[in-house]
Amino acid sequence: MSITDTPNAPVNTSYAQAPARTVDVGDVTYTYRELGPKGGIPVVFFVHLAANLDNWDPRIVDPIAKDHHVITFDNRGVGASSGDVPDTVEAMADDAYTFIRALGFDKIDVFSFSLGGMIAQALVAKHPELVRKLILTGTGPAGGTDIDKVAGTTYFDILRAALTRSDPKEFLFFNRNATGKPAAKAFVKRLQERTVDRDTPVTAKAFQTQLKAIKKWGRSAPADLSKLTQPTLIANGDNDRMVPSVLSEDLHRRIAGSELIIYPDSGHGGIFQFHDRFAPIAVEFLAR
């Protein structure tokens, strides 16, 4: 195992400036970025379908990084990380565990979105001792209603976006109305704030394999979420077309003591549309 690092670097709390690093485990090189003050329990971010390090909203990451060591990473076969993407969520969770342990952590907080939230659930189920607190956004449980239809929705919106020369996330994450359209444009613009050392795009093969894994997750037996003892914060928009909003309510019912926020007039990317309201809640939740 080897880690590339820069000794004595000043504390950086801007995601746009976060250095890219790598850690080698066996024959896989994991690419990650870190920012915020070191020490304490790190917050590890689990990203969504077809996403790499450049897909995290700096308006969510930066407020958390003010007081927390934040790590975002490309799982195996994603972005600049080497290897092949596994075709199950559980195997993705195994890779995430390998990455986290390679960095030397035995306790983390998790911030997850969409597919990342599915991976996070699988990770907690297998390694409950690893996770202190859990943030699940825009996601759903194994066996959740209509999760297996994500591929159809995704391909439809990719086509719609291509016809208008837009970013597919504008269709997949936001309502196509007077509130959603400007929020979508603003979100996509924020993702461009990092201008140097940007990540490698996700390949078509990796994307298709992730979709296969999501379909299997949607068609698998429901997990026993009553076993989760971690403090859990759940959030979504009220009109999520990718991972139906009712699944956030389902998670809330099944995870004892969890907190639920549903943002009005927003879709899958509700936390990004309402970043100014959600980021402080996430910060407060992690600081408790």
Fill in the CATH topology.
Rossmann fold
Query: How many individual domains?
Result: 1
C-alpha end-to-end distance? 34 Å
- The percent range for helix content is 25-40%
Q: Identify low-pLDDT runs.
A: none
Number of helices: 10
The CATH class: Alpha Beta
Rg (CA only):
17 Å
Number of strands: 9
Shape: globular
Beta-strand fraction estimate: 15-25%
What is the CATH superfamily classification? Alpha/Beta hydrolase fold, catalytic domain
Strand arrangement in the largest pleated sheet:
1-2-3-5-4-6-7-8-9
Give the oligomer, counting copies of the same chain as homo and different chains as hetero.
single chain
- The run of helices and strands is EEEEHEHEHEHHHHEHEHH
Major sheet: 9 strands, mixed
Query: What is the averaged pLDDT score?
Result: 96
| Overall SS class | alpha/beta
Shape-level CATH architecture: 3-Layer(aba) Sandwich
GO molecular function: hydrolase activity
Domain AB hydrolase-1: 43-272
Pfam families: Abhydrolase_1
Protein name: Alpha/beta hydrolase
